[in-house]
Write a structure and sequence with these properties.
The complex is a heterodimer. Chain A is mainly beta. Chain A is built from no helices and 11 strands. By secondary structure, chain B is mostly beta strands. In chain B, 31% of the residues are buried. Classes of the chains: A mainly beta, B mainly beta. The interface between A and B is medium-sized, with 23 and 23 residues.
């Protein structure tokens, strides 16, 4: 089955700096890669996703890049704000397959 | 307008008891899931149902039994609870195709914090 590894497990940045979280996956057949944000005590929520036919996707201050050859994808958050503090999860799955493999999570702390 | 709801939100019980968690979604989705999130925040899929049929059953003890009476509901029953079952359990739902665009966004419920003493 798929194995998703996520790094770092914790990340502390100063407000205004950029944050990068990296994930690798093992199954080259995986073709959909979402990122979820989970604030303390709340449910995970999708913030951005990317499909394998796209190398990069951007939505305001967040962007995701995908390198299919190397089997890794990354989340980039620019101009971080204290409200970005949360646990971020990457995931990988295959179209028409109902199983999402989640990374182990990254706790991001944005210091004001 | 609650998209995915779970009850109860908190559940405290003793070892050996049997308990159930209920999940309902009003999004019209065809697929529902149960996840377990342990104290280290790791999200692990337990079960997945598509159109009321079980399609994924991870390595979960058979003390855990999901039941889907219809597409909008997926309940989780746990027999003979153990200390290691303490975790937050999330229900989620998704739809394979929305308005001609493939999407796999999963909508999570608020979670049920289960504490076994």
């Amino acid at each position: 089955g798929e194995n998703v590894e996520q790094h770092p497990s914790t990340l502390s940045v100063q407000e205004g700096d950029s944050a990068v979280i990296k994930c690798t996956y093992s199954d080259s057949a995986s073709n959909y890669f979402p990122w979820y944000k989970q604030e303390l005590g709340k449910r995970p929520q999708l913030i951005i996703d990317i499909r394998s036919n796209v190398g990069e996707k951007k939505d305001q201050r967040i962007a995701v890049t995908l390198n299919k050859t190397a089997k890794h994808f990354s989340l980039h958050i620019t101009e971080t704000q204290p409200e970005d503090s949360a646990v971020y999860f990457c995931a990988a799955t295959l179209y028409n397959f109902n199983k999402f493999y989640f990374g182990s999570g990254t706790k991001l702390n944005v210091k004001p | 307008d609650t998209a995915v709801s779970q009850t109860p939100k908190y559940l405290v019980t003793q070892m050996g008891n049997d308990k159930s968690i209920k999940c309902e979604q009003n999004l019209g989705h065809d697929t529902m899931y149960w996840y377990k999130q342990d104290s280290k925040k790791f999200l692990k899929i337990m079960f997945s149902y598509n159109n009321k049929e079980l399609i994924i059953n991870e390595t979960v003890p058979n003390r855990f039994s999901p039941k889907s009476p219809d597409k909008a509901h997926l309940n989780l029953h746990i027999n003979s609870l153990e200390l290691g079952d303490s975790a937050v359990y999330f229900c989620a739902s998704s739809q394979r195709r929305t308005s001609g665009r493939l999407t796999y966004e999963q909508y999570f419920g608020p979670g049920t914090r289960l504490t076994v003493t």
